[in-house]
Request: fold
Amino acid sequence: MIAGWETLPSALAAHLAISAAALALALLVATPLVLLMPGRPWLRRTVMGLASVVQTVPALALLALFFPLLVLLRNLTGLPVPSLGLLPSLLALALYALLPLLRGGAGGLAAVPDSVRDAARAIGMSASQRLFHVELSLAAPVVMGGVRTAAVWTIGAATLATMVGQESLGDLIFAGLQLQDWQQVLLGCVAAAALALIVDGALGWCQRGIAERRWAPAAKGLVLLGLLAVGVTGWWLHSRPATQVRPVLIGTKTFSEQYILAELIAADLRAAGQPTGVRSGLGSGIAFQSLAAGGIDISIDYTGTLWTQALGRSDVVPRADMMRILTEQLKSRYGVTVAARLGFENAYALAMRRADAERLGVRSISDLARVSGKLKLATDLEFLSRSEWTAMRSAYGLEFASMRAFTPVLMVAALKDGAADVITAYSSDGALAGADIVLLTDDRGALPAYDALLLVAPGRDDLARRLARYDGRISVDAMRIANWQADRPTNKRSPAEAARWLAKETGLQR
Amino acid sequence: MVSVPTAASVPPPELALALSGVTLALGGRPVLAGIDLVVRQGQFVALVGASGAGKSSLLRLINRMLEPDAGTVAVHGADVAGLDAMQLRRGIGYAVQGGGLFPHWTVADNIAAVPWLLGWPKPKRMERAAELMAMLELPPHLAQRFPGELSGGQASRVGLARALAVSPRLLLLDEPFGALDPETRDELGDRLLALHRAQGLTTIMVTHDLADALLRADLMVVLDGGRVVACGPPAEVAADPHPAVQNLVATPLAQARALAGMGK
Reply:
């Protein structure tokens, strides 16, 4: 069976629900605006201008922007406004759907001929009779065209809701992308495309019915929409485990190590009779926020990341002190418990081709600084805006010929084919186990430690006790090999298979 | 509903229409400047003038689609400012160029639009629509067609039928035949005149077709720059030396003389 098949019904149902809700919200906002537009050119200009500006923001950025906005709102009002999951997704998607709705509405009304508008007034129709019996009736086909566009856009953009912790078909796409499991990516894409096509087709029938003033096509469209909703809901209910207790949720960021460790823990908890689910593909900061808010129960994070992102510190302190301060402050500030330090580190590091390193005599970052002016640096998407880069740059005086950001999975490839000479790497990266690549040592200690930790949400000390046995059990070598099993281009294993190997290798298997 | 006329300026009811001192500006631009005009019941009035002279605006003041900045408009002796605008409009026939038909309503529904607004039951509406279609020589099978399927002449007839649906006493026409070919225009003009006489209507027609105005109207009103520059029987108006009048009538009269010469 294709990986991700068992999560498909639930992802599909969530996807359909969030898309429908966002579209409904957008309709609720767009309708009065469109109705107020005739005779108010300033309103039309302002609203259409704003909607167009919103449209130029990439959907992903729009989703990401709602996170700080909602956090700000929560801090200002003191209300428990959720900043992750459903609410930001709903708001961002609704905002994104506004433009086609407004364009359809305003365009439809503007296309009503002046002579018809005039005649309606001249024969003595009231304002509401003119609106409903003439203007809206005539505008309806164009308005429905706008609704169709908005529906298709929303269903497409909803795949991105995964990044802010809302379940959607994006779960399959992002997990598959990270694991280079193209079947799973395809499954997510095909499901989203099929959903969009069916909804577009159904609304197309409704549009035709309205345009031709015939009931039959409109009814056909409505029946198809109804069948879709009932079918998806039914499949989801049918495939759902019988248990009614909320499963323990393990959140993961977007890389293989996180997927493997999540599967390792999930298998362990399930074996002990605890229903467990995995919420995959969360953004780096979002995983922790979600944990602190109780949206997920368990996450895997790294000391250096938490040091800067959760505690807001940029100083470098000895490893033991960092661990002690983090344990105390995560508990006191967020209620989050450090259940275990896994035993390996996934630090930011710089890596080079072995041949280059030997030719140039580079072993450490200090060595690199001597020659870096002639080299091209490739980083992951966030490194250049992280404080680690600032610290590394000022400690070593690094300057590169060029700097470019890549998707993490492509960085090793960039190094191998010469698109980059130096890349940011993670010390537990599986690709390092196989390739002819050397890691450069942080000889001046500019970077904080990145010890992997198991974190548990506030109020789940029961889980913390059960996970305490993971402390110090996973070595960096074991983790690197497990990562390589999932990341290597051929003979790839699923995260669950790699997790089984890791369990056996480390003796964590029950 | 109708206010009791008390002011001395209120005209007697046998006057279908009386405008006095009507001034109108639209968007800061003066459109009409001190219009005085009296139309007796049963008159067929042609309202002519260059584009932008204010003809359509004058028509729209009569059924309150526009409100004057100064002056009064009285219909059948009642100041329209005191009447409910919607009731007033339903009681006055109004047709525009090309018909201004509702593209999503059938021909019959279009014709019976005002009866529908007045709450007539459906059978009565359909009966009235059939009657009007016969009156305007529209074949009955068009009743369930949509306006998009009609020829220009048919659409104009439907527009006219809609204006006549509740037998109004006053008919306002804004270039009703403007977009038609000359033959159809002439034929419809005759039809309209016959209906006007048979039903005892008072008709005010804005037109660009000077021949139509000169040949059919009882009263010809020439507007120029928002003022009435000539008003009277067509023969008298045609002889008026005012340059605006001569600009309008010179060409059609010269053409008519040339055509008459060819006939000899």
